[in-house]
Amino acid sequence: MTSAPKEATEQKQYLTFILSGEEYAISILQAKEIIGYDTVTAVPKTPKWVRGVINLRGNVVPVVDLAVRFGLGERPVTKTSCIVIVEWQLETQYTMMGVMADSVSQVMDISAGEIQPVPAFGTRITVDFLHGMAQLGKKFVLLLDIDKVLSAEDVLGLQEVSATTAKTSLRSATAQA
Q1: Can you list the positions of beta strands (E) in the chain?
Q2: What integer pLDDT is reported at residue 152 of this predicted model?
Q3: In sequence order, which residues have a C-beta less than 8 Å from that of residue 124 and are 6 or more positions away?
Q4: What letter would DSSP give residue 3?
Q5: Separation of alpha carbons 141 and 135, rounded Å
Q6: Each residue of 43-86: pLDDT tens digit?
Q7: The dihedral of CA 162, 167, 172, 176: what is its sign?
Q8: 169: phi then psi, degrees, rounded to nearest 5
Q9: I need a labelling partner for 67 at 20 to 30 A (CA). Which of 51, 97, 111, 177 fits?
Q10: Superfamily of chain region 11-176
């Protein structure tokens, strides 16, 4: 009996998307779904990179504009704009967040051997946010480490915004009933 080459077994799938003309990727295991950009409710006193919150099947989910978070500037919403719902574990609980993208590109298989370290120069975002990079044709796709994109403090702040918004929505719905 022969076993598959080690490199083949280490392949992972990544969802690629466009932000400000650059291609980024996150692990497909963290991407729960992709939805069209629709009504996003702005929340006062949040950082500029938080677009607001959405109602996702009864759950209040914060929407983050990664382009603004990375200092690339706010992009207009177009017909290809979408929100990638991502989930990751923070301490002992799972957290959901919407990540705004200009468009979604593809799902690609990348083996561990194809991931290259990020040089300390040449990227327009903090290299701490990146897990690595992989060649895609003549260009590179930047592999985001979604756990590092937001610090624990940022995530706790977003959870607080979600909880406050959910309570306000519940009170408003109860008052109307």
Answers
A1: 12-19, 22-27, 31-36, 50-56, 59-65, 82-90, 93-101, 103-110, 130-136, 139-144
A2: 45
A3: 20, 22, 70, 71, 72
A4: P
A5: 6
A6: 988 888 899 999 999 989 999 998 888 888 888 899 999 999 99
A7: positive
A8: -65, -40
A9: 111
A10: CheA-289, Domain 4 (2.40.50.180)
Kind and range of the H or E run holding 167: helix 152-176
Place of tokens 């392949």: 11
Q: Is the pLDDT of residue 99 over 90?
A: yes
For tokens 């701490």, what's the residue?
128
Q: Which residues, in sequence order, are CB contacts of 161 under 8 Å at separation 6+?
A: 43, 46, 50, 53, 62
Q: Are 97 and 64 in contact (CB under 8 A)?
A: yes
CA distance 17 to 23: 6
The two structure tokens encoding residue 162:
């979600």
3-state secondary structure 8-31: HHCCEEEEEEEECCEEEEEECCCE
Q: What is the residue extent of each domain of the chain?
A: 11-176
The string over 47-64, giving b where at least 16 C-beta atoms fall within 10 Å of a residue's C-beta and e elsewhere, is eebbbbbbebeeebbbbb
| Cβ pair 26, 144 in contact under 8 A | yes
